[in-house]
Write a structure and sequence with these properties.
The protein has 72 residues and is an alpha+beta fold. Helix content is 31%, strand content 38%. A hairpin with a 4-residue loop joins β2 and β3. Bound molecules: dioxo(di-mu-sulfide)dimolybdenum. Dioxo(di-mu-sulfide)dimolybdenum binds next to α1.
Amino acid sequence: REETTELAIEGMTCASCVGRVEKALAKIPGVLEATVNLATERARVRHFAGVVSTADLEVAVEQAGYKSNRLS
Ligand code: 9UX
């Protein structure tokens, strides 16, 4: 089953930050697509449920140097 998780990302100040966060999320096995909106500070991640947890996404964002909080 696929699901979409939204995260609030803190600490992005330029467009390159968006690319860093998208790349960090997209490389997780089981992630299908990751898009980040700088203006709204939101990441939307489509992934396989059961393969990728919200915690996995948050760890990846934090390892890339940003803070993340689960939205839905
Ligand atoms: Mo831009 Mo973001 O110079 O960590 S890449 S602020």
